[in-house]
Design a protein that fits this description.
This protein folds into 2 domains: 41 residues; 236 residues, MetI-like (MetI-like fold, Orthogonal Bundle), CATH 1.10.3720.10. Helix content is 78%, strand content 1%. The chain is built from 11 helices and 2 strands; from the N terminus they run ααββααααααααα. A hairpin with a 6-residue loop joins β1 and β2. α1 crosses α11, α6 packs across α7 and α10 packs antiparallel against α11. It is globular, with a radius of gyration of 23 Å. This is Phosphate transport system permease protein. Keywords: Cell membrane, Membrane, Phosphate transport, Transmembrane, Transmembrane helix, Transport.
């Protein structure tokens, strides 16, 4: 009887926390939408999203964030392209090749990497990656989109490894004895069994990493130059989160500039929602084909 009461209390607590989390997210979305609405009363949504000029303090203010949106997506996708093979490869090593003692050493190190403040990554990127580009590419300033993608990829690799490793380890333990009994090599088992059955966890890691990449502010802001121009691989760019962080403190409350920054945050939330929805649909379609 006592266990049933405790189970019921636990179940209701989880339900309450879940509802509370949904309500908090809903109210955040409503607040940002409310603060953004005055902008869209003065400027059309299409003009704001597709506009290429960001001059909120000019005599005739122009607020367009199309280059900033492109830069945000470009740098996030590029960081995923760089980090995904490294992250999956490290997860394969930890789950299939590393000894138990090696895992005990490396796992805490990876967990520690996820807890390092982003400003530290940005500082190291500024001192190492930016200086490398200045010295080897004859650039006046090494701050660029590629620098931001490299720093961001280093930051999200631990997320990909952590998400994939446990899943791959469980699959290996499940199928390893059968594979060896059939005379299947470890390489074949990894490529045909472990990686294929880890597809869901790999896709989940991409979703988590992409969400982190799209919202990352400080580390990226320190190495990309923060210029709201059309993105080029070795050119200075600006992300939506960087734009908000840099200008929110100086924007007059209630001004068009102020509401424009909130509208940028609203667009970022919608962008993350759209990308996650697309990935969910792709995941569902691919699983249906299997």
């Amino acid at each position: 009887m006592k266990h049933k009461i405790l189970d019921k209390i636990f179940e209701n607590s989880i339900k309450i926390l879940t509802i509370l989390s949904i309500l908090i997210l809903f109210f955040v979305f409503v607040f940002i939408a409310k603060e953004s609405s005055p902008l869209f009363e003065n400027i059309s949504a299409s003009r704001f999203v597709l506009g290429k000029g960001w001059k909120p303090l000019a005599k005739s203010p122009t607020l367009g964030i199309f280059p900033v949106i492109l830069s945000t997506v470009y740098i996030s996708v590029l960081s995923i392209i760089i980090s995904l093979p490294i992250g999956v490869g490290c997860a394969v090593f930890l789950s299939c090749f590393a000894t138990e003692n090696t895992r005990k050493i490396l796992k805490p190190v990876l967990d520690l990497l996820t807890g390092i403040p982003s400003v530290i990554y940005g500082f190291m990127g500024l001192l190492i990656v930016v200086k490398f580009f200045e010295a080897n590419f004859k650039m006046a300033s090494g701050e660029s989109l590629l620098c931001g993608a490299i720093v961001l990829s280093i930051m999200i690799v631990p997320f990909i490894i952590s998400t994939c490793d446990e899943s791959m380890l469980k699959i290996r333990l499940k199928y390893e004895s059968y594979s060896y009994a059939l005379g299947v090599s470890k390489e074949y088992m990894i490529s045909k069994i472990i990686l294929r059955n880890s597809f869901r966890s790999i896709l989940a890691s991409v979703v988590l990493a992409l969400g982190r990449a799209l919202g990352e502010t400080m580390a990226v802001m320190m190495v990309i130059g923060n210029s709201p121009m059309m993105p080029k691989l070795l050119g200075k760019v600006q992300t939506i989160s960087g734009l908000i962080a840099l200008e929110m403190g100086t924007a007059e409350v209630g001004s068009l500039h102020y509401h424009g920054l909130f509208a940028s945050g609203f667009i970022l939330m919608v962008l993350i929602l759209i990308i996650n929805s697309i990935l969910y649909i792709v995941k569902k379609k691919l699983l249906d084909l299997e």
